[in-house]
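Handout for the seminar on molecular recognition.
Each group receives one record of this type.
Step one: identify the two inputs.
Step two: read the structure output and locate the region that could contact cobalt (II) ion.
Step three: write two sentences on what you found, then compare them with the reference statements printed after the record.
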Amino acid sequence: MGEHIEKLKNHLKKLAKFESASSLLHWDLEVYMPKKAANKRAEIIGEIAGFTFREFISDKTLQLLENAENEAKTFEEKALIKVTKKEYERYKKIPPELFVEFQIETSKAHQSWQNAKIENKFEIFEPNLEKVIELTKEITDCLGYDENRYDALLDQYEPGLKTSDLHRIIPPLKDFLTNFLDKLSLGNHPNENLLNGTFNIEKQKIFSNKLLKILNFDFDSGRLDVSMHPFTITISHNDIRITTTFDEKDLKNSIFSTIHECGHALYEQGIPEELRELPIGEAASNGIHESQSRFWENIIGRSLEFWKYLYPDFIEIFPQFKDVKLIDFWRSINTVKKSLIRTEADEVTYNLHIMMRFEIEEALVNDKIKVKELPLLWNEKMKEYLGITPQNDSEGVLQDIHWSHGSFGYFPSYMLGNLYASQFYEAMKKDIKNINSLIENGKFNVILNWLREKIHSKGKLFEPKELLKQVTNEPLNPSYFINYIKDKYEKVYML
Ligand code: CO
């Protein structure tokens, strides 16, 4: 390795260490921190973020990049320069004062969103959201874009993705899903009541740990804790932490949250050490990250084969299910319902929740609608997409945390995750012929190794479009998701 590449890497790795410290503070904030520490903690995390931001956009970084550029020979070195340069140029375009203002305003907005949600009053959040959107637009205008302001936002989460891609993908998918929902309503509905009951939290913990174990989560490189909203965070290499949530009345919640976050963690645990602490040592994108969590949660975790393997152990821990037939249990965990809350949505309706958010976000950042129109518009869109209307703002426009963080452009990653996951799965089935029998026998390591080789080991060396092409020989093709949904849910609803 050339001397200048080495210097660049050392500089980036140094900055990554500050990010590690900040991640640990953040994890603690969600898991253990006493309530009164919130303001100071936000200040500490903000200070570190400001420091690393200034260091990253410094002339030193530029100098190191320019020197290293001529030295880059291997594919990895070239990718390192490319990815780092893109990030450098993006951040460099944002004036530091604007960056800091955005941090401050989003943390205020986050507070007011929480209050608004508790009080059930959008008006509390409205002025803060207006400010956040104003700053978001200012930032996008610094970043620049060709046709659509939303492109600049998408690119942060899904490099290379354009708003026009979404306009192409969404309409046929929306049509399919809406028609398919009509079809399901004529089918044989699963008995959801099977899942009612009270489930001891300690037992749920035991089961969550069991799930992680069979799915090959590496407990020597990570841990499971509890938080209000489940999440995965990478502190550093060999320290990938996940959280789940336990609800005495809802067993599904902890099971599928745990599997979902495990999927994220397996990806992070699979990123090679030599890429770590560098911009190429991250996930390819949010959408690719979500493909991994959704793959394990839905395609594997909600499959009949998975429960064939697990059901005996499950019944041992939760004997109240001993008279419930496996097939009925499986059907009940796959119940499809038009519901108000995105995070509780099933596989069929989930993407509809995303589509309406995308429509609203695109209109917002392009000045087509005003913040004060949001509650009404939200309810109209809910009616249009899912045929139901929220009774109040908390279960409507205020339900998601994202806008309070200023994360506009993030939602489409969830939909892409679902689409990528099915497309990866089809490619996987070509390589692994006996996949159903592997799942039935709990041989998840074969599946994980495939994901490791094709996706995890690549880090951020490729943009999502490129990676997808490499793994599946095709650009994004939503028909894999459509076929997966059809095949599975025609069985669940006995059509
Ligand atoms: Co996720």
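Reference statements: The pocket of cobalt (II) ion is lined by residues 260, 264, 290, 293 (CB under 6 Å). The mean pLDDT is 96.
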